[in-house]
Amino acid sequence: MTNLLQLSNLKKHYPILGGILKRRVASVRAVDGVSLTIQRGECFGLVGESGCGKTTLGKTVLRLFKPDSGSIFFDAPEDVVEEIIRLKQKDPQSRRLRALRGQYDIATYHGADLQPLRRKMQIVYQDPTTSLDPRMLVKDVIAEPLVAQGIAGGEEAKKLVMEILERVGMSDRALYRFPHEFSGGQRQRIAIARALVSRPKFVILDEPTSSVDVSVRAQLLNLFTDLQREFGLTYMFISHDLSIVECISHRVAIMYLGKLVEYAVTDEIFHNPLHPYSQALIASVPVPDPTRRKRRVPLTGEVPSPVNPPVGCRFHPRCPIAMDICKKKEPELLDVGKEHYVACHAINSSIEA
Amino acid sequence: MSQESIVDVRDLEVKFYTYAGIVEALDGVNLSIKKGEILGLVGETGCGKSVTSLSIMRLVPPPGKIVGGRILYKYGSVQGNVLEMSDHSLRKLRGKDVSMIFQEPRAYLNPVYSVEDQIGEVMLVHKKEEILQNAVSAIEKKLIENRRIALEKQRVRLEKQKTRNKKDKMKLEERRARLEKEISKLASKPPSNFEVRIYKRLIRSPRSRIVAFQARFSRKRQFKKELRKEVVRVLRSVEIPDPERVARMYPHELSGGMAQRIVISMALSCNPTLLIADEPTTNLDVTVQAQILNLIVTLKKGLGSSILYITHDLGVVAQSCERVAVMYAGNIIETADVFETFSNPLHPYTRALLRSIPRPGEPFRSIPGFVPSLVNPLPGCRFHDRCEYAMEICRKTKPPFFEVKPSHYVACHLYGGLK
After folding, report:
1. Max CA-CA distance within chain B?
2. Which of A127, A214, A285 to mutate to test the interface with B (most CBs of B within 10 A)?
3. Pair A209, A125: CB distance under 8 Å
4. How far apart are CA A39 and CA A251, in angstroms?
5. How far apart are CA A204 and CA A333, in angstroms?
């Protein structure tokens, strides 16, 4: 499989302004050096606690936010990506690098450069009640991307809208209604239709099922898998519900305080988690089986503030196996075999030894 | 586990009189909560879980109205049918015998009062006497101690004094005897000051206006100290680190998990016999959820309270509840032991609900159809249009809620029950 999306050391810091002159006094390190690749046609799960930077990462990838540093390659030839990464280390001032990045690295794009990108990358938000304009008819809500992109207008747009509405399982009676007339599940279907109407290649699903009921959730998840097969979509599935991610994703990344701590194939993550945080996270998912009760609380305390993340490994204040080195040096994300990446000193040293 | 029930809900009917029509939110709910158990109440959005819990405290907001049924309290300081209680007894019941934890802890906490003030408020309503008593004994202890030190000093001084004539000696003896008497009486008749007198009056006649007026002139220092001590004790019991500091914080300074702990501590501050937890962990992260669940279970063991745990997460139910009640469209359709519910569910809806739990490697299975509107509910069994086993009788007659096996109740025509 080929890579569709590649992130290299991506950073997004939000400034905290203070003082009379409103200068930057500190920053919230929401995404602090994330590198990963998403392959064509897969569903990539991104898991973490609230406030760990999942949504910020998603929005930065779409370039709804401008990253502070790092690169985002979307649908770029692999040899070019390799060359850029090589040049960045060897010769960061070179003219060739600047030219290549300007063309392929969407982190450097400005204004109008981004317009064609929007067609290829879309997002479905968590809460459809707030992400759909309450004053727009469903037909206008869904046709908006078409009009904005200049793909279609008028009757043609309407035809495309009806097509996609039917595809997400709604009848064309919905066209002349307002979002508030629908239930949560149906609204989310409308949001999905809007995301897919411009036929993107890559869709970010930002907790799309957290506001609906169990039975509706299953319908939506089925819809996602069907649409993925039909349109050849690549998903980035952001969620804090591990049981869903386990079922829908091909690969899963676990994020903690703006950094990836582990990523691998779904089976590997859920059956052989290596990072102590991943282990704790997976252990705290309530299993719907009363015969398998757990009485041990896997993790105490709470996520520290991303303004002043702990020095060294960010997990060390809560880590059950923290060592001296964890307080000083930040662990790197290393491959431990079978494309299983872990950022933990304990694991990495045992592999080197 | 003892089998006595502390609350019995019988044929409870609640209707909401809205412009769109009469919403039959609850249609004959039967529920009993046993002493010391955790009962899970499961169901989809809008099935009446929260209305049930609000009815138990008679807190159904207008336009809702309890139109029929009984809610019997059998334990605690207030007993009897909640629906026939006076406002005064209800006030004693709410927050003391029955308390509640809500879903959104931050919406529940008042943003302009500190944590200390808010927890203190619950105690002022239900535990004022106890705290006043504590304050009185604390001051008395201090006064006795001060007095004793003063008397001891006097005694030492008297012992050192020398006398020249008999008259003086007599006087001295007299003074010594008086001193001894005073020291021995100290414990039985403690000295008092203005603060103590005010507190004692407040305990004696808590509702007197004159006393309240007098109390205004006291700064009630010791009372405030005792109140804070109690608040810190409660905060410590819910495993909050550095409770003295947290007590002075405002809700916006707290994280979601912390805020939920504060709400739990508030609910548990008066050792309730029944705690109603309405989706307490829904908006929290899994790791925090595990902490809170564990906390609720350990606190329950310590206090011996019963818990009505409302949730839609079957995982949470499996992990923490002892019995499960499943609700659908205003009815309780199945009640059983948690092991029985998961291994041998009887009602088709319970089965469908359990099937819809995502399992890796299997396709997602949903329940076909939609939750029916409660404005014009279906006649007969309210699940019949989505049920794969629906029969002729299901469309006409509402199934009775009956015991199929020992302590396994179900409301479904598949298992008979009609006489």
Report:
1. 116
2. A214
3. no
4. 10
5. 24
Yes or no, beta carbons of B359 and A294 under 8 Å apart: no
Note whether B149 and B217 are same-domain residues: yes
What residues 265-324 of chain A have any CB closer than 8 A to a CB of chain B? 266, 270, 280-281, 283-291, 293-295, 297-300, 302
Nearest CA in chain A to B258: A302
Contacts of A26 (CB under 8 A, 6+ apart): A15, A16, A18, A307, A308
Segments in chain B below pLDDT 50: 1-2
pTM of the predicted structure, to 2 decimals: 0.83
Domain that includes residue B164, residue range: 124-233
Residue B286 is nearest to which of A183, A242, A266, comparing CB atoms?
A242
**DSSP 8-state code for residue B398:** P
**A183 in B contact zone (CB under 8 Å):** yes
Residues of chain A neighbouring B288 (CB-CB closer than 8 A): 49, 302
Interface probe with B: pick from A211, A213, A251, most Cβ of B within 10 Å = A213
B242 within domain boundaries: no
The whole-angstrom separation of Cα B227 and Cα B235 is 12
Considering the domain architecture, whether residues B189 and B307 belong to the same structural domain is answered as no
Using only C-alpha atoms, chain B has a radius of gyration, in whole angstroms, of 30
Query: Could you give the residue range(s) of every CATH 3.40.50.300 domain in chain A?
Result: 41-63+117-249
How many cross-chain Cβ pairs, A to B, lie less than 8 Å apart?
118
CA neighbours closer than 13 Å in the CB half-sphere of residue B269: 33
Residues B128, B187: one domain?
yes
**What ipTM was assigned to the predicted interfaces of this complex?**
0.82
Mutate to test the interface with B, among A302, A305, A318 (most CBs of B within 10 A): A302
Q: What is the CATH number of the domain that holds B335?
A: 3.40.50.300
Task: Tell me the shortest Cα–Cα distance from B329 to chain A, in angstroms.
Answer: 14
> What is the three-class DSSP state of B308?
strand
B residues 298-337 near A, CB within 8 Å?
Answer: 312-320
Residue B302 located in a structural domain: yes
| Helix (H) / strand (E) containing A340 | none
Domain count, chain B: 2
Q: Judge: A290–B342 Cβ closer than 8 Å, yes or no.
A: yes
List, in sequence order, every residue forming a beta bridge with A123; answer none if it has no partner.
Answer: A204
Q: Give the residues of chain A that fall short of pLDDT 50.
A: none
Whether B346 is in a domain gets the answer yes
Question: Kind of pairing, strands A202-206 and A234-239?
Answer: parallel
Contact A24, A84 (CB under 8 A): no
Of B216, B233, B250, the domain-final residue: B233
Q: What is the pLDDT of residue B179?
A: 82
Under CATH, which architecture does the A41-63+117-249 domain have? 3-Layer(aba) Sandwich (3.40)
Sheet holding A202-206, edge to edge: A121-124, A202-206, A234-239, A43-47, A251-256, A259-265, A341-342, A334-335
Residue ranges with strand state E in A114-155: 121-124
Beta strands in A228-319 (DSSP E): 234-239, 251-256, 259-265
Check A288 against B352: CB less than 8 A apart. no
